[in-house]
Amino acid sequence: MRFDRPFEGYVVGERHRSRGRTITEADIVQFAGVSGDFYPLHIDREYAKQTQFGERIAHGMLTLSAATGLWVMEPGCVLAFYGIDALRFVRPVKIGDTIYVESEVKQLTERSDTAGLVTVHQQILNQRGETVVDALVHMLVAREGKK
Q1: Do 90 and 145 touch, CB atoms closer than 8 A?
Q2: In sequence order, what are the residues at sequence separation of 6 or more whose Cβ sits closer than 8 angstroms to the Cβ of residue 88?
Q3: What is the per-residue DSSP string for 98-121?
Q4: What does DSSP say about strands 78-89 and 131-142: parallel, antiparallel, or unpaired?
Q5: What pLDDT is stored for residue 64 in this prediction?
Q6: What pLDDT, on the 0 to 100 scale, is given for residue 7?
Q7: Percent of the chain with pLDDT over 90
Q8: 79 in Cβ contact with 141 (< 8 Å)
Q9: Among 79, 82, 63, which residue's Cα sits nearest to residue 124?
Q10: Residue whose C-alpha is closest to residue 55's, from 44, 69, 66
Q11: C-beta separation of 121 from 91 below 8 A
């Protein structure tokens, strides 16, 4: 999504598609280290071979975090990340998968004289166009002239 303008610049139904990003083994190892999530499905090749996935997969939260890096966020326009609702991890992301984000503005809510809430339906997809994560994202955005 592009969070790069004042609240008044958004339109319900507006859509955006991000650039892509390939998830690597290094991403998974680094995320495990930062998060402390060393669950063997992510870091143990032999364990992962015995699971329904047959190989290691990325942490769901790694996928979500990497996707936020694909958003365009302009300082001064974005006041705060407000939250996520209806978050679902639909399919696994494997080492070497390339993800991108498709977003649609669903709701605009005036919060104050200085801020509005932009609610976006976000789908993270893989290189085959399959949804891997689905969620409603809420971003607090500055009102026109109120940065």
Answers
A1: no
A2: 133, 134, 135
A3: EEEEEEEEEEEEE-SSSEEEEEEE
A4: antiparallel
A5: 97
A6: 97
A7: 98
A8: yes
A9: 63
A10: 44
A11: no
CB atoms inside a 10 Å sphere around CB 140: 20
CA angle, 136 then 7 then 89, to 5°: 15
Residues 91 and 66: their CA atoms lie apart, in Å, by 16
> For the chain, which ranges sit under pLDDT 50?
none
pTM over 0.70: yes
Q: Write the DSSP assignment of 49-85 as a string of letters.
A: HTSTTSS-B--HHHHHHHHHTTSEE-BTTEEEEEEEE
Residue that the structure tokens 């166009």 belong to:
129
Q: What are phi and psi of 142, to 5 degrees?
A: -65, 145
Please report, for residues 32, 108, 138, 139, the alpha-carbon distance to residue 111 in angstroms, rounded to integers and kept in the order given: 37, 9, 12, 11
CB-CB contact of 8 with 143 (8 Å): yes
